[in-house]
Amino acid sequence: MEKFKVLEIKESVFADNNRQADLLREELKQKQIFLLNLMSSPGAGKTTTLTKTIAKLQEELRIGIMEADIDSDVDARTISETGAKVIQLHTGGMCHLDAEMTRQGLEGLEADELDLVILENVGNLVCPAEFDTGAAKNAMILSVPEGDDKPLKYPLMFSVADVLLINKIDTLELFDFDIKACTERARKINPKIKVIPISAKTGEGMEEWVDWLRSAVRDAVH
Ligand SMILES: Nc1nc2c(ncn2[C@@H]2O[C@H](COP(=O)(O)OP(=O)(O)OP(=O)(O)O)[C@@H](O)[C@H]2O)c(=O)[nH]1
Ligand SMILES: [Mg+2]
Known about the structure:
Elements: E1 5-8, H1 17-30, E2 34-40, H2 46-57, E3 63-69, H3 74-80, E4 85-90, H4 99-109, E5 116-120, E6 137-143, H5 150-153, H6 155-160, E7 163-167, H7 179-189, E8 194-197, H8 206-221
Parallel strand pairs: 1-4, 2-5, 2-6, 3-4, 3-5, 6-7, 7-8
Helix pairs in contact: 2-8
The structure holds guanosine-5'-triphosphate and magnesium ion.
């Protein structure tokens, strides 16, 4: 038997997503559950970063992961090996999650006893940025092979992110990726964005990221 549930989430019936997102955010705050929405293009390293993040935090926080995909359970299978609670959400072709879909996921996950829930959103740099999920914070990953011009091409994603992880820095030698230029471009769109270069593969930068996340969870709860 699988160690995780697969849930077909239904298209939202609410017209006003921002209101649903605010309601969900407030409810989660009351329940002291910190929800992080993790976004990136396909293959930037969301699942790899999550497995390493779980390993560093699972002794101190009760963690649950919601893996959203159009139609596969590859990522939930990977996460289930970490021992964290996980659910696979199928969006039925939709390239994003909104607040009501996120709520369905949280109910399926039975998140009430958890401290930290991370939503791995559908891999896409456009649609997920357009829908508030009700998360306390938004994180995004841009990986080195994608190029340092992405803040110029997908500004909305950079404008909604609280933290930008520049992943795969172990490959910097192979690509013309200028971390400083990328950071400046991202900050021009979003002056408050926190930028953390990491390699989910080698572990470089992961401490700084985990410290950021730990503080964000603590600040939200206290
Ligand atoms: N070199 C290197 N490869 C990495 C790093 N992080 C992830 N990868 C590789 O990048 C590929 C995609 O990683 P995933 O973690 O599956 O990416 P994802 O964003 O979850 O992908 P989707 O869920 O399909 O959108 C895998 O082959 C990983 O091993 C890294 O820091 N360095
Ligand atoms: Mg993934």
